[in-house]
Amino acid sequence: MLIVFLTILSIPLLFILGNCATTYSLDREEKSYGKSPNEVYPKFSEVSKPGRTPAVLLIHGFGGSPYDFKPLTDELAKQGIAFHAILLPGHGTSPRNLTNVTDEEFFQYSLNALDNLKKKYGEVSVVGFSMGGAIALNLAEKREISQLILFGPYIDITKKWYYPGRPENWAKRLFWVMPYVKKRRYSKNPNLRNINDPEGFKRYDSYKHLPVKTVRELEKISQNARQNIDRIQCDVLWFHSRGDIAADFRSARSFFEKIPSKHKTFVEYTRSNHIILYDYDAQDAIRKTLAFLNAEVVRDGNAE
After folding, report:
1. N or C, which end of the chain is more exposed by having fewer CB within 10 Å?
2. What pLDDT, on the 0 to 100 scale, is given for residue 120?
3. 105 Cβ contact partners less than 8 Å away, ≥ 6 residues apart
4. How far apart are CA 288 and CA 109, in angstroms?
5. DSSP symbols for 235-266
6. Is residue 11 predicted with pLDDT exceeding 60?
7. In this structure, are residues 261 and 141 in contact, taking their beta carbons and an 8 Å threshold?
């Protein structure tokens, strides 16, 4: 009986100790930027460049920034293609600023950026990664765009054997006792990282912590995309890694099959993880993306 009592008593203690450790780690993250938590860290800033059309709007992932796309935007600049990689609300400063941002704020910021690009360039293609991919799907359902290119878009969080049910449901229940979690990208265990290539792992940067509360907003974005999937008519190029530990592969493939676009391509990778543009298949994905933007045919199938 005493063992049961002590076990029950230890659960809240573990949460308290874990949150203290996370808070300390979060404080260190903010200090590492070397500036106020309300100022944008230079590496995370928005980036744009004029050029030829169709212009490209790039929407980063949850806790990420335009830096998510640097390997691709560097090539877009070389190709002379106009682009704008936006910085979503709550990003680029401190994970604490991300805590209360809503799905509507993410979407409206992206929609305004799309409309501004359309006014300036006429034709716009949209590129989205992870959460940004789900936002891009919503944009394609609301506006006419030239092309839709997705890198590991979030439809569902990848399920794991060690927790029952959907992670999104656990986030709704636990955020008040576990407000932040350390991002897998920074795990000491290589098997928990979302970049398989060690060199890509060294180059990438993003928030090191994520607010659990905001996972509810991610789910809303995905739900909206599901409800209006029949409105997607543009050409679609979808990249996804079978071993993606963040954005569930099976849910993604199922969603892709339901898209009514006449021309759509699903590229499946087996060597890379979630952050494809910093992983083993980055160059192949960039090559296929540029070909797609230049209206060349990109074939379906696996990429080794």
Report:
1. N
2. 95
3. 89, 90
4. 28
5. EEEEEEETT-SSB-HHHHHHHHHH---SSEEE
6. no
7. no
Q: How do residues 60-77 score in pLDDT, each as one tens digit?
A: 999 999 999 999 999 999
Domain 2-303: CATH superfamily is: Alpha/Beta hydrolase fold, catalytic domain (3.40.50.1820)
Give the Å distances, CA to CA, from 230 to 15, 36, 89, 137: 43, 44, 28, 11
| Spatial distance between the Cα atoms of 278 and 194, rounded to a whole number of angstroms | 10
Q: Which tokens hold the place of 282?
A: 């980055």
SS3 126: strand
Element (H, E) at 162: none
Q: Is the per-residue pLDDT at 278 higher than 90?
A: yes
Question: Pick from 99, 106, 92, 172: which is nearest to 138 by CA?
Answer: 106
Q: Where are the domains of the chain?
A: 2-303
Nearest Cα to Cα of residue 48 among 105, 98, 120: 120
Q: Do residues 207 and 91 touch, judged by C-beta distance below 8 A?
A: yes
Main-chain phi, psi angles of 242, to 5 degrees: -60, -30
If you search the block for the tokens 């006792």, which residue do you land on? 177
Provide φ and ψ at 274, rounded to 5°.
-70, -45
Could you give the CA distance from residue 225 to residue 221 in angstroms, rounded to a whole number? 6
Torsion of CA 150, 112, 73, 33, to 10 degrees: -110
Q: What is the DSSP letter of 40?
A: P
> Is a pLDDT exceeding 50 seen at residue 237?
yes
